[in-house]
């Protein structure tokens, strides 16, 4: 995350501009948006939104533009995108040590992938804004009591009480405040020497010595070590490697929140959603005539769309036309989430149907959401082997189609949780009980994240 880009927003522009000047940013209101909270106090909602509209931007337009350039490089095979972080952030989890651990994990993975791919890795955190989650049902029933479903800390509380589960607009402001403090910490970590390549490499070596399956990755680690020592011996400027760019991303689910944090860029007169650098549309809300697609078509951030196993080539082409009519490299990313059992059939068919018509779009793999199961002990989990099978089949499909596998989008934590079965540490069904801490979806723990990075580095090496 660069700190050298000046703020370029004039809040007066957004405060006094009419809808026509803003390019239809409010058209989504007439489209019955899905997955939105039900607030019972309109005055409290308006008060929260008024505070957000007058708040400083969380990110700057120039930063979003730089990220767009970085993602464009990934679409050409000149970089690789790594997006990782919590399935749903919590207010309570916005602690310095937990944020540091997540950033550290992404940096460690990126170092391994950089070596494997011999190219820059675009580092994006599902952080500083990933507080909302879509749900399959509006309500949850326990022991005959029915209450609203938990939709993330930005909407309501996890505790199963009527008071906690009420949709509270004051949480919108709290989400903004927690995002701001999280971004401040991320900037400090990535610009203050914490991201020094030599330090990150030492972290990876520590992982290898403690991981039961380290022999598989030992050769790669030795090669990275030799490369770092060679650079040092040649007098490489390690000062330039002490900092790194790190961008913030989240699903743009709550449209009132996103709209309130939209500003007009004084350089260009265009609208940017300043709640995060990269915003995506989920599988449940990607209808071509839906509110989420309409809103994000009118802001200039780099954006993504999740594509599940039912997505067709016509769907993808229509979304590209709506969201990226100028075919701008780096503007649009398709994040496929097919499932290990389906991707070998569905992704090649999708890529074949599209053909060469979207060379500017970046393709990223989400190997998490299509592989969710319920364990015998009742936990919502995933198998590490299924996750990695989807990643491998993602690379194979793109190799066969002659297209570029541009990145990974994963749910992870820097903590030693036990939420996903398998991996070198062999978490089994009973092992899930030890530290199952997620409130929504299961995440890769620190060791599993690094294990994934070393395996993907092998795929990138073969690709090159």
Task: Tell me what you see in this structure.
- The chain has 14 helices and 14 strands.
- It has helices at residues 11-16, 42-53, 61-75, 96-117, 162-165, 170-191, 197-210, 215-233, 255-260, 291-296, 313-323, 343-354, 384-401, 446-463; strands at 80-85, 121-126, 139-142, 145-148, 247-251, 262-264, 271-273, 278-281, 303-307, 332-336, 362-365, 372-374, 380-382, 405-411.
Oligomer: single chain
Distance between the termini: 28 Å
Low-confidence stretches: 1-21
Main sheet strand line-up:
1-2-5-8-9-10-11-14
- How many E strands? 14
Into which percent range does the helicity of residues fall? 25-40%
Tell me the major beta sheet. 8 strands, parallel, barrel
SS content category: alpha/beta
User: What general outline do the C-alpha atoms trace?
Assistant: globular
Mean pLDDT level? 91
Helices and strands, in order, run as HHHEHEEEHHHHEHEEEHEHEHEEEHEH
- Compute the number of helices: 14
Percent range for β-strand residues: 5-15%
Gyration radius, rounded: 21 Å
Task: Give a topology summary.
Elements: H1 11-16, H2 42-53, H3 61-75, E1 80-85, H4 96-117, E2 121-126, E3 139-142, E4 145-148, H5 162-165, H6 170-191, H7 197-210, H8 215-233, E5 247-251, H9 255-260, E6 262-264, E7 271-273, E8 278-281, H10 291-296, E9 303-307, H11 313-323, E10 332-336, H12 343-354, E11 362-365, E12 372-374, E13 380-382, H13 384-401, E14 405-411, H14 446-463
Parallel strand pairs: 1-2, 1-14, 2-5, 5-8, 8-9, 9-10, 10-11, 11-14
Antiparallel strand pairs: 3-4, 6-7, 12-13
Helix pairs in contact: 2-6, 4-6, 4-7, 4-14, 7-8, 11-12, 12-13, 13-14
